[in-house]
TrEMBL record:
GO terms for molecular function: hydrolase activity. It comes from Marinobacter salarius. Keywords: Hydrolase. This is Acetyl-CoA hydrolase/transferase C-terminal domain-containing protein. Residues 443-610 form the Acetyl-CoA hydrolase/transferase C-terminal domain. The keyword rRNA processing does not apply. SUPFAM superfamilies: NagB/RpiA/CoA transferase-like.
Length: 739
C-alpha cells in the first residue's frame, strides 16, 4: 500500500449530520453519483433523500444503476408468496427509500433518478424511468456521470480489519467506476467546483485489497456507526433449467485450458460454471454427454477453439461482474491461472519461458530479455522482490545485496555470486499473481460469507478494480494495452441475449418500441474486445424459445426493430440445441447456422422468410438431423449424465424452501394460464371447483396464510393455489451439489 495522505475526512456517526456537512460543502444543487448495485450507502442515501423530500429548495439528481429492492410481488398471490421470503432474506436490511418511491412513481418534483442499467424488466411500464434512462456503455459511464455534473459521490466501503490496513478502506464490491471517478472529481474541485466524496462504512462488506484498497483520506466525509451496520443485499440463487444446463454445457466445451473467462449473472452463467466444474472434476461423465450430443462432429469450432480435458493450466477470470461462480471455480481448482501486472513478465510466462518456480534460470531469462541488468541494481532488486523472485528481505545497499548479515555480489556473471544468490536470496515461486479481475459483485449471502472467510493468500489473488481496466483494451492507469492482451489469452467472453436475428444481430437490452429492459452494460465492450484479441471469441447465449402467456415464441427471429450487438460483430451463438459459429461466414451460412440451432417448431417458417428475402437458396431443404430440436431431446440429453444428479436445478444451493419451490411452480403456472382474457376466465372457472378435502396442501396453504381465509378474495386465492398445485405438484428438486 502506498504512503497515506495527510488529509483526514470528517468522520460522523449520524447520517443527518453527514447531510448537513454535505450541504455546507456543495450547497443544495446536488447531483449524486451512486455505485451500481450493492455498493450504495443506504443510510446516507436515505438521509439525503429524506432531506430533499422535506426541503423543496434542494435539487437532487441521483445518477446510478441497478438500484436493488426486495421483491414484493404485484398480485395478491405474489405478495402472499414473497412476503415471508422477503422478510427472511431482507428483513434486517434498510430499504433504499428513493428506489421504492421510483417503483411507486412518487418521487417529489425536486428529485430525479437516472439509471444506466435496470434490473431486467423492472421498469418496462414505468414511464418516468424510461424517460430518465441514460443509455451508455459501462466503460463510458464515468464520462457521462461527469457530463451530467456529478458533484457528490456516495459509496459503501469496508473498514479496515487488520493492522496493515489501518488508514485504508476497501471499495470492495464497487471499485468499478469509483477508481476513475474520484480523481476526476478532485480535478473538478481544483478547477473551482465544490465536490464531496462520502464513504459509509459497513463491517459486513468483505475487505478486498489490491486496487480496491484506497486511503480513507480520499473521502471528505465518512459515516461510521458500527451499531447500525446492516447485512448486505443478496441476490437469491436462480433455478437452472435443463435448457440452461445444455447451453452451459456447450459453452464449457469452448473453454480453452490456460485461457480467460468472462461470464454474466443469472442462470445461464451458473449453468456454464457448473458444467466447467463437471468437465474438470467429473470428466468422464462430462464426456458422456459430449459424445451423446456428437459435439465434435456437429460443431467443429469446439475442436479448434475449445477443449474436452481437465483444466491443468487453469483459467483466469476477467469479468466486469465477479459472479459467485468464480469462487466455486476457485474452490474446484479451475480458476488457477495467475496473471501478473507486468507485460514483459506475463509474455514470458505465456511463451513458456518462465514458470512460477523460481531458479537461476529465471534471472537469466529476465536478463536476456533486458528486464534486469547485471550486476543487479537497486531498481532490479526492488522489482525482483515484488514478484517473489528474490526473497522480500533482500535489500540493495552500497552496491551489494544484503540478506540479513550476509553481503552478496550482485554480478550474475560470477559463478560464486550466482551460487550465493541461489542459496541465500532466491525466492521459491512467483508472488503477486491474480486469478480474477472483477469490477463489481453482487450475489447470494453465501457468496459474501465465502469472501469474508477467504484465506489471506486467496483474497490477494482477487483484484477488484476499474471497469475501464477490465472491459476494453485501451491503456489505463493500472495497465496498458500490451499488458491486457498478454493477460487475456484465449479469451472467452460469455454473455446472454434475449433474441438473435438471422442476420446476426443480438437483442439484449431493449424492445423495438424503445422501452428499455435492462441496459447495454459491458456486453458491447466484451464482444468488441473478442474481435480485437488474437484467439478470443465472443459467445452469446440464449434460450431458443420464451413463453408469452400460453404461447411459445422463438427467440431466434428473422428481424427485429432494435439491436444491442450489430450484425457485423456476430461471432458464436449458443442455444440448448447447439453452437452457431458465425464469424467470417457469408450471410447465407449465418442464416442457416442460426436456423439450425432454433427450436424445430419454428425452423420451417424461419427458412421460408430467409428464402423469401433471397438470403438462402430457394432449393435448400432442412436436413433431417436438424429437425430434432425439441424439449424432449433436451430432456434425453440431460438424462444421459444422470439427470438431476449431474444437472440439478440448484447446483450451488438455494434460498427457497421446499414448500416455496412447490408454491412458486404453481404460481408461475397460474400466471402463464391467466395471461389472456380467455385463459383467466377458464382458470377461474376451474379454480372455483378446486378443493383440498384430504388436507394434502395444508402446510402450503398455511405458508400462504390461506389456511383460514375470511374474505371472498382470500377464499378465491385459496382455490387458485389449490388449482395450481393440482396442475404442478411434484416432489421438490433438492439437488444441491457443487459438482
Amino acid at each position: 500500500m502506498a504512503a497515506m495522505v495527510e488529509e483526514q475526512p470528517v468522520t460522523l456517526a449520524d447520517s443527518s449530520a453527514c447531510v448537513d456537512e454535505l450541504i455546507h460543502r456543495v450547497g443544495k444543487r446536488i447531483t449524486l453519483g451512486l455505485p451500481l448495485g450493492l455498493g450504495k450507502p443506504i443510510r446516507f442515501a436515505n438521509a439525503l433523500y429524506q432531506r430533499a423530500k422535506d426541503d423543496p429548495s434542494i435539487e437532487l439528481h441521483i445518477v446510478t444503476a441497478l438500484s436493488l429492492t426486495a421483491p414484493g410481488g404485484s398480485s395478491s398471490l405474489e405478495k402472499r408468496f414473497m412476503g415471508p421470503f422477503a422478510e427472511r432474506l431482507y428483513g434486517r436490511i434498510p430499504e433504499l427509500d428513493y428506489a421504492r418511491d421510483v417503483i411507486g412513481q412518487r418521487l417529489p418534483e425536486n428529485v430525479r433518478v437516472s439509471e444506466f442499467f435496470f434490473k431486467a424488466g423492472s421498469f418496462l411500464n414505468n414511464k418516468d424511468q424510461q424517460r430518465n434512462y441514460v443509455c451508455t456503455n459501462y466503460t463510458h459511464a464515468v464520462r457521462d456521470l461527469m457530463a451530467l455534473g456529478v458533484n457528490v459521490v456516495g459509496q459503501m466501503v469496508a473498514p479496515a480489519t487488520e493492522p496493515d490496513q489501518e488508514g485504508y478502506v476497501s471499495l470492495s464490491c464497487n471499485p468499478d467506476l469509483s477508481l476513475d471517478l474520484l480523481p476526476l472529481l478532485r480535478a473538478r474541485e481544483a478547477a473551482g467546483t465544490p465536490v464531496a466524496l462520502v464513504a459509509e462504512t459497513n463491517s459486513h462488506l468483505p475487505f478486498l485489497g489490491n486496487d480496491a484498497a484506497v486511503e480513507t483520506g480520499q473521502f471528505d466525509i465518512v459515516l461510521e456507526h458500527a451499531a447500525s451496520d446492516y447485512p448486505l443485499f443478496s441476490a437469491p440463487q436462480m433455478s437452472v433449467s435443463p435448457e440452461d444446463h445444455l447451453i452451459g454445457f456447450y459453452a464449457s466445451a469452448l473453454l480453452r485450458d490456460g485461457g480467460t473467462l468472462q461470464v454474466g449473472i443469472g442462470s445461464l452463467g451458473a449453468a456454464l460454471v457448473h458444467s466447467a466444474i463437471l468437465r474438470h472434476r467429473h470428466n468422464e461423465h462430462w464426456k458422456q454427454v459430449f459424445d451423446h450430443l456428437k459435439v465434435a462432429d456437429r460443431f467443429p469450432v469446439v475442436s479448434e477453439y475449445g477443449g474436452t480435458d481437465v483444466f491443468e493450466e487453469g483459467l483466469y477470470g476477467c469479468s466486469e461482474m465477479m459472479v459467485d461462480g468464480f469462487i466455486y471455480l476457485m474452490e474446484a481448482g479451475v480458476l488457477t491461472r495467475e496473471v501478473f501486472d507486468h507485460a514483459g513478465l506475463q509474455t514470458l510466462i505465456n511463451r513458456g519461458e518462465l514458470t512460477h518456480s523460481v531458479s537461476l534460470d529465471t534471472l537469466d531469462v529476465l536478463r536476456r530479455e533486458q528486464l534486469i541488468d547485471s550486476p543487479l541494481r537497486a531498481r532490479d532488486v526492488q522489482w525482483l522482490c515484488r514478484y517473489g523472485i528474490l526473497n522480500p528481505e533482500v535489500e540493495f545497499k552500497g552496491g551489494r545485496l544484503r540478506v540479513g548479515e550476509q553481503s552478496l555480489d550482485p554480478d550474475l556473471d560470477s559463478e560464486e555470486a550466482r551460487s550465493a544468490i541461489e542459496s541465500l536470496a532466491l525466492g521459491k515461486s512467483l508472488t503477486g499473481g491474480i486469478v480474477v479481475h472483477g469490477g463489481f459483485f453482487v450475489g447470494p449471502e453465501a457468496f459474501y460469507q465465502r469472501l469474508r472467510d477467504l484465506a489471506p493468500r486467496d483474497r490477494q489473488r482477487i483484484c477488484m478494480t476499474s471497469v475501464n481496466y477490465i472491459n476494453h483494451l485501451y491503456d489505463h492507469a493500472f495497465g496498458n494495452q500490451r499488458l491486457k492482451a498478454a493477460q487475456r489469452v484465449h479469451g472467452r467472453f460469455i454473455n446472454s441475449a434475449m433474441m438473435h436475428t438471422l442476420s446476426g444481430a443480438a437483442v439484449s437490452d431493449g424492445l423495438e418500441d424503445g422501452r428499455v429492459v435492462s441496459g447495454v452494460g459491458g456486453q458491447y465492450n466484451f464482444v468488441a474486445m473478442a474481435h480485437e484479441l488474437p484467439g478470443a471469441r465472443s459467445i452469446l447465449t440464449l434460450r431458443s424459445t420464451r413463453k408469452s402467456g400460453e404461447e411459445t415464441l422463438s427467440n431466434i427471429v428473422f428481424s427485429y426493430g432494435h439491436c444491442t450487438i450489430p450484425r457485423h460483430l456476430r461471432d458464436i451463438v449458443i442455444t440448448e440445441y447447439g453452437i452457431a459459429d458465425l464469424r467470417g461466414q457469408s450471410d447465407e451460412q449465418v442464416y442457416l447456422q442460426l436456423i439450425r440451432i432454433a427450436d424445430s417448431r419454428f425452423q420451417a417458417d424461419l427458412l421460408k422468410q430467409a428464402q423469401k428475402a433471397g438470403k438462402v437458396d430457394a432449393s435448400f431443404r432442412l436436413p433431417e438431423h436438424w429437425c430434432n430440436n425439441t424439449p424432449e431431446a433436451v430432456g434425453e440429453a440431460v438424462k444421459i449424465a444422470g439427470d438431476t444428479d449431474m444437472f440439478p436445478a440448484f447446483p450451488f444451493g438455494r434460498d427457497f424452501t421446499d414448500e416455496e419451490l412447490r408454491l412458486g411452480k404453481a404460481l408461475q403456472t397460474l400466471k402463464a394460464a391467466t395471461a389472456t382474457r380467455r385463459g383467466k376466465l377458464l382458470t377461474l372457472w376451474r379454480a372455483v371447483k378446486a378443493n383440498d378435502d384430504d388436507n394434502r396442501y395444508q402446510p402450503l396453504l398455511e405458508r400462504m396464510s390461506l389456511d383460514k381465509p375470511r374474505s371472498l378474495k382470500a377464499r378465491l386465492d385459496r382455490r387458485l393455489v389449490i388449482h395450481g398445485l393440482n396442475l404442478t405438484d411434484t416432489p421438490p428438486n433438492t439437488g444441491n451439489t457443487n459438482a
